[in-house]
Structure formats: C-alpha cells, structure tokens
Fold these 2 entries.
Entry 1:
Amino acid sequence: IKNNPILDDHYLSVELAKLITLNSRSKVKQKYAKWLFSIEDKVENAELLTYDQVVAVIELTKTLGLVSCQEAAEQQHLKVYEDRNGGNANNWWSYRASILGYSLDRIKDKLQRAGMPIKGKSTRKLLMKSDKYEMIRTGVIDLFMAMGKNDRFARNLGDLAKLFAKELQVEIFDDRGAVPAFAPKVNQEVVNQVKKLEKSGVLGVWN
C-alpha cells in the first residue's frame, strides 16, 4: 500500500527474514537464504554494527585507556576461563596469547631488536613501549571475551577500538594509585560498567 506509514516503519529481523525465505516457493530462495545467513554471521562476529554500537565502542575505547579498566577486563576474562575449566587456570597465558595474536616473548623480542631495555618490565609496560594502543585493543578483547562473545567477535571490536584510539589519540593512564588532577576525563558510569561487567549502558547494546 503506497505511502502507508505502518509499512514504512516496518522491518524484518534477520531471523524472521530467514524463515520467510526458506519457506517460500521462490526458485532463488537459496541465493537469498545464503545472503541472509552471511548477514547473520557478520552481525554475530561484530562485522556489522549499529550506530549505537559504534558509539559504544568509542566510549569503551576512551574508558579502556585507564589501566584499572584494562586490568578489570583481564581479570573478568580469566574468571570466565577458570569457570569453563573447572576452576583451573592452567594454560591461561598461552590461551590468551592465541586470542590476542601476540605473546610476551614476541613483545620482548621486538623490543630487544629495537635496542630497548626489557628487564623487570611488566607486560603492560612492555606494550606501552612497543605499541601503546595495543593495550586498549587487548582490554576490549578481554572485556568481550568475559561477556561470552566468541574470539572473532572480540578481536573485531578490539581492532576497531585500536583504530579509534589512534584517531582520537586516547591517553593511556595508570589510575590504580592516587589520581592526579590532570588525569584524562572519562565517563565514570562507563568505567563502573566495565569494572563490574554490567550488561547495561554501553555494554547493553551487545545483549
């Protein structure tokens, strides 16, 4: 019906569209079914984002410039790993390295070849010297893995956050001690949501 406001506002979910397509008698239904499944795959792996999700990634990018939030995300990810392995944290570091795409040894090797000192440095301090925005990528990946997302999904959002961090020149700040007056301004509500893994606010757009 032309100019019908109800029809203009109507939309189909991917799931409903799949059901209609697969139950139709159309000769080309297979083609459209494959297309719909590919869309669903991209949505499930954070390759198609809504406006609200993009805004949420930007907020998370700024928030995960704080070391305390990076640390909280890592601990939440570790807890999920332990829960899946009967309370056992064996192989945690090798498992996490496989998801992140780098290991501590690889970072050390890179810095040594560049002639930089590495003795007594934590992983975060080494990353700060090697590629500081990788710290934000790592935090985002840890966060979404803790939320139960798959590794492809988490890496995609981590990569996007790193890109945003570079463009926005997000400051990496260790706020675990006393926070001075010149600390970067971040949304405290988002900080609390990240630290408590609250599936509301910016994290609520991924439910």
Note: Residues 4-12 have pLDDT under 50 and may be disordered.
Entry 2:
Amino acid sequence: MPGAFFCVAAALIEYFFGLGPALTVMLVGLVIADYLFVPPYANFTVLDHNDLMLGISYPSVTIFVICLIERLRRAQFRAELFASVAKSRYEMLLRADNSRALRRRTIDETHRLLRHLPHYHDTIILIQALDRKASLRADVALASGAAHVLPHTSAPGSRFSAVHPADIARLQNTLTPGSHRLRIKSGEHTYKPVDCVGERFTTHAGDFLVLRIED
C-alpha cells in the first residue's frame, strides 16, 4: 500500500504531538504518495482507479488510527490528571492532619504547663481560660470542707484553698481583668483582705486570665 509509511508517520505524530499535526502529515502524505507511488508517476492530470483507491483507503485507515490514538491519549491524560489530583489531595490532607496533631499537642502542652504553673508560684491564685480553645480542668476542695468546683476552664493555685468561699462564688461569674479584693485566710478562722490583680495574656492555645496577689 503506497500510503502505509505515511499512515505510520501520522500515527506517530498523533501520539507525540497531537491531532492537528497528525492530520497535516496525513494530507501531505496523501499528496506525496499519489505523486510518487501511484502510476502514472509524477503526474496529477490523470485520475484512475489507483488514485481513487488511494484517496479512499489511505485517509480512512489513517483517520481511524489517529482517532483511536487520540482517544487513548485523552484517557491517559485523564488518568494522569486524576492521579495528580488524588496525590495533591492526599498531601493536603496529610499536611492538615500533621498540622492539627502538632497544634493539638502544643495546646495540650500549654494546658499542662498552665495547670501546674499556679502550684509553683505562691502569688498565683488561679488561671482562668477566656475562650473555647482554652480548657484547663481542675477540681478544688476548700479547707473548710465545703466543696467548691471551679468551671472546667480554670486551674487553681496553691493559695486558692485559702480564699473565702463567698469570694470563690463571686469569682466564678465576675472574674475580669483588673483589680480585685479577696479575703484570704490568715489564721484558723480569720480572713484578711488582700489586693489582687487579674491580668490577661494570649497564647496559641487561647486567652487566659491570671489572678495573682498584687505585689
């Protein structure tokens, strides 16, 4: 078949360069094959049976092969695109999971530090979380035997058990930044007014209010 070489060439061009160049090669190949390989050679003036067969069979077979390869290329492109999107989403989810795990660990470490910090500073009465991200859990029992439980967002200090029960009840609802006066036990049954200050500070784990005895 005179156009077999050009059919293979068009198929290769289609695979590597796409549909447009392949159709161009097919048309150029049709002209060259008819001019050089179909008798009478080097002559376009005579149209006979051989020219008609070449003009029908060669484009039909070549277009069929080109269309088949084009469909395969598009299917390959879609598969590569889906694989790329899936890989990208997996990497995004992995980064998000790692970020959440790191943030959760950091917040947990901050909470653990804030829960233990008041016990090592005599001037700190309590640390109160001010937003949902902060969550410090502590149960407090007063020395008098009456159990007063702070909200789950509070961490008491070592001096908290010496605070008057009425002041504890007031702190649960009205603790704000600024000056506060609390009654702290100074003897067996006596309480002494003490000036305290509430200071707000912000961390990556949330906003907190530290109530401490004023210097």
Note: Residues 133-152 have pLDDT under 50 and may be disordered.
